Amino acid sequence: NLSLFPPVRPPKKTSPKKPPTKQQAAMAEEQMEEASSSAAASGTPFQLQFDKPIPFQIKLAEWNPEKDLLAMVTDDSKVLLHRFNWQRLWTISPGKCITSICWSPDGKIVALGTEDGFVLLHDVENGKMLRSIKSHDVAIICLNWAEDEPLSRTDKEDLLSYEDRTTRFFPPAPVMPRIGGLNSGDTGLADENEEAIQAFSSASCQRFNILCTGDKDGCICFSIFGIFPIGKININKVPIHVQSSGKRTSYRLQDVSISKQVSLSRNLHQLVLLCSGKLINTDNLSLSNDLSVGVHCLHLDTSIFSNRKNELHQVSQQASSIQDLVEVVRASISMMSKQWSNAMNLFHEKFSALPSLLTAHGMESSSEDEFMSLLFGTHTSPALHQFLVSSLGEAGLKRIAKTIESAGRELRIVVSEHLQPAVEIISFRLAELRGLARWRSRFQNIGLDEKLMDGVTERVGMLVVQVERFSRVAATVLYLFQNFLSWVLKCVKILLSEPTDQVPSTNSELVVIFLKFLLDKDPIKQLLETDQIFEWDIDTAKHVEHLVVFGGFTDTKFLERSLAKQFSELEESLKEAFLMPFTTVSSQIHCQGLLPLYPVTSSDALSSTSTPASIAFYKDKDSQHNASSYSSTDYICFKIPDGSLNLRNFVAVIKDFCNSCSTSNTPSLSGFLLHIPVEYECVDLSLYKDNQVVLLLSGKSSSENAGRSWMVMLQTENLSFSQFSRTFPANYYNLQELEALELQLDTDYGKVRSVPHPLSTPLAVSASRGVACI
Amino acid sequence: MQGLFSRSLSPHQDNIVGKYESALLCLGNLHCYFGHPKKALEAFTEAVRVSQMNNDDSCLAYILGAISNLLSKIGISSTVGLIGSRYSLGNNIGLGTPLSIQQQLLVLLKRSLKRADMLKLTSLLSFDHISLAKFDLKHVQRPLVSFGPNGSTKLRTCPADVCKNLRLSSHVLSDFGTDGLSIANDNGSFSTSWLRNLSDASSSWHSSSTKPRKLITNDFDNFHFHAQPSPIPTSVLQLAGSAYLMRATAWEHYGSAPMVRMNTLVYATCFADAASSSELSLAYVKLIEQLAVFKGYSAAFCALKLAEEKFPSSTNSQIHLLKMQLLHERALHRGHLRIAQQICDEFGVLSSSVSGVDIELKTEASLRRARTLLAAKQFSQAAAVANSLFTTCYKYNMQVENASVLLLLAEIHRKSDNAVLGLPYALASQSFCKSFNLDLLEASATLTLAELWLALGSNHAKRALSLVYQSLPMILGHGGLELRARSQIVLAKCHLTDPEFSVSEDPCAVLDPLNQAAEDLQVLEYHEMAAEVYYLKAMTYNHLGKEYEREEAAARFKEHVTALENPRDEEDSLVY
């Protein structure tokens, strides 16, 4: 059952209509309208907007940040997109187990994390997959896609802004070649995505944003626009330095598993994440004890992203387009090779009948000789006659001609519409990147290396030469084929005593060349294979060496390679060049602080990943006027699992963790604990826009309240935060120090609504619209 | 690209019907080649008449292309009045008003293109695309007819069109078999060339068979010596190659140095076998220019020597011109003004005395004269030359050249301490560059603007700095040594002038660019600017209290100033 409530401001809740006793799990979603805050006191704070039963168990749900769209993942890993009024837009089944979901900041893309470490990006319009990126080895537990806060742009940064000149100088970039109607073989995945990819790459380059993905083993990857990988850290290997009473101690976390929450602040300055793992002291391994296994809150310094965002933006914009185009080139080459080998197979299959016929007639000459003697009019051997008239025949010949012609046309189209433009734009973009790399003071510290870029530029130049060589060889070969086949057709007609005036005139010299060099060789295929080494003559060698003096390619051996080989070399050097920024940026992400939250026993370590928790950054109220340098406060809100810290049914809210890590004097860590009435348990919780906490409480089955649930929204400002110290090494878990508050469902802490069903996760909160729970 | 056109006509000779008009067409092309536009036009007019009489559509298409070639080649103004009367193009499209010469050119090209497309004359089609690209490169395409307020007037050139046209023109290579006029004929030419290569082929077969590596031969690879004679006509190859040369030229305008180099290299590598000597030498000229700008003069002169061997200089004016350009630049940088003046005079002599002919050469000569005068600090004379040059360019509608002349004027005013006067020129140059997409020139105009603001006082340092930052990505990426060094100097100066900036806090912000500039200028042997760099360096070290480094920089400063003021061994400047 899904229930929707009319949209206003956004708290939400869900109510199942059918008892889950049935096999089919029932789920409901509600959207609630929050009465405007002034009217909040006057009764129902939330309204049920709509509800609807849905026949699956929903595992994850997330509201689109821009529109009234709710994306949900079911237990059997279908992804559903619903509008606010429950109108279903699309459903897709990626065929993989989905473990996390998030929206891009502009709401145009849904990112899905899968169990096997892929990030899938889907278009919001139609659910088409835009990209699939393998960035992790294990399940991706959490995704967070943060966008650069536009307010943080200052005048100076605007001046540093940079125009991507490509759109001005080039027509739209080529897309992957589509297989023509004639030979519709197995169309790869790539084909159906092509338009979407284009739309994606042009649209995504608007504002700087970073997708961070965290996996089960404690790796966090960062990718700009969700597509260009820019950094990766492994929490297991990050040293954590803790300053305590003048001493500096290093710790390391072991067996880390990131829990559901990773959050990058909106100015991209800080990253806060919750993870479970064992904390060990690297200076003194013996000091660790059982207590050190627990859930910890880590603060990572990602200021490289905000300090260098212009540079990163420019680089990733160019680099991601280059990677797209490299895919286009790859697809073009493989398609040409497929098309051509299909055509050649047919040709050789038909013409291979001739040698066997010759043997059958007891002749020792080769097919080449036979054709030659036919050409020069000496005689037509019975074998050749039989071959031309009966085994090949006019129809068969025409079929071959048609196949080769269409393959040739495809080849021509692919070269001129896909391969050449793609290579041209790649070379332009690389030239731009190389230009950026020259600005050492700005780009060296994000790892854009001038030397590597020079190398790549050089390679792409060679690739252009190779493409030109290929198109020339292809044009010649195709012309010769056409000439030869018309000549054979003419011969067939003469043998059949048919009129030949329909056949185009042919050049007999070219027929000779064809017979000598093409009948049993395939120069096009040679160029499309990677393992060929070509011979080339001394004159050319001299010419190329001569050109070096004029600033030519210093690698004078490049003509030995085939087109495909040259392309793979380009790819390699591109990979190397783009790895530099990746490693450089990764090495500049440091851990700034650690706060142990609560211990877990190893038995329930696994379940801890599913404990409700939420992290959010709120802009400081007092700094809102000063647009250029605002700071933000982080709020961490989580449920303490029963039994841990000897607390039952508690929810903790902590704020200012980051600031307490980075600056020693200003607002220090504070928080409070909230005791949930015993007859309820907290099912899910979430932080909501203006420093509110939304809790989803469900009646315990044992109590009389079974089947009744509550949705609660609390204003954190109304609650008293008490400071607590970070005497971390001495005392691991300080949460007990916090003041415990009783949550009473009828108080004025916030707004409460009861829901007449048992509730289950997830709770999805949307800052601009409603809240849904399922 | 000269001579390109006459080649695309070669298939014509096979056309039996129209021998007379073909002859006229060739005559016209020859007149055009030797610089007699009027005679050429007469021949073309006659050819049009005859081919219309004979219904020879393809010849007509070629003539249209030839006339447009003529129009774009000779200085546009001299044809005013030549064409209007007999052709009355204006009337043809139903407009009473006479069209400007550029628009006539555009109309002709488009018509020729349409006809070529209809008649499947792929070579002509390709040629027309290249001509269109050439047109688009330098001219804003305005709609011929614009009705009412909806007629959008875009006042920028459209580089994407250039790119599209060039791509279309490259299709000639793959479509050569379908050209209606170039049917391969059985005249034995292939056998002849094959036989000629036979001895080479068989002898190298032996040598190659001794190689240990297993090599594959691709018989149709043009890089392979016993590759078979290609059925692709040379004219087609030349057209396909011209597209690459044209690309290189386009990128020279738009500002992407690696693209210029790459396209030229592709041309020199892949099309050298079929290229005409003038086009091939043009490619080499471009490569040497790149060397001079990015690697300094010694590398360039070394390459130039090789090029001169390859193309005997008596027959090749392009190489000769390049040599003079390089010598002039080097003389200016070294401060050998007498030599520079001498080369300028030589330049003046090279161009024809007829007005309207050889305009590009004349423009270049005056530009160089103005720069020489500027280097000699004769500001008013330099300004006078530049002003008259501007008038000429304006008269002949050479907008692209206008941008650089305006920039030169701004530079003259800056050097004569007249920053306020220079500002409007720099701004005008900048806006010209914007509308013609001359990104690199725009970046250097921005840099000049920054220098002008800086000259106005230290309170403008912030503005200047932001201007420098704007131009840096372009300049560092695509600018030559001189421009790069200049931008680094301005950057350092901005910091030094800024009252809020303190050297002791961030010495790297000043010293890094200065060191970089010093390095670049060393290669370039540019004494004047090198002296400036060392001066600034010495000042900075003085601030920092590093005396040893200060003295060192000061000594280098003195070295360069002496070299500039007492040019020794001036005669060296003509030797390379």
TrEMBL record, chain A:
User: Per the UniProt entry, what species is this protein from, by scientific name?
Assistant: Aegilops tauschii subsp. strangulata (Goatgrass)
Which GO terms fall under biological process for this protein? anaphase-promoting complex-dependent catabolic process; cell division; protein K11-linked ubiquitination
What's the protein name? Anaphase-promoting complex subunit 4
Where in the numbering of this chain does the Anaphase-promoting complex subunit 4 long domain appear? 296-497
Q: Lineage in the entry?
A: Eukaryota, Viridiplantae, Streptophyta, Embryophyta, Tracheophyta
Annotated ranges, domain Anaphase-promoting complex subunit 4-like WD40: 62-147
Name any GO cellular component annotation: anaphase-promoting complex
The record ties this protein, via SMART domains, to: WD40
* Compositionally biased tracts (Low complexity): 21-42
TrEMBL record, chain B:
The protein's name in its UniProt record: Anaphase-promoting complex subunit 5
Give an example GO biological process: cell division
Q: Does the keyword Membrane apply?
A: no
Give the record's GO CC terms: anaphase-promoting complex
- Protein keywords: Cell cycle, Cell division, Mitosis, Ubl conjugation pathway
Q: Give all residue intervals belonging to the Anaphase-promoting complex subunit domain.
A: 10-72
Q: Name one Pfam family in it.
A: ANAPC5
Question: Among its keywords, does the record have Cell division?
Answer: yes
Entry-linked InterPro entries: Apc5, Apc5_dom
Q: Which family does the record claim for this protein?
A: Belongs to the APC5 family.
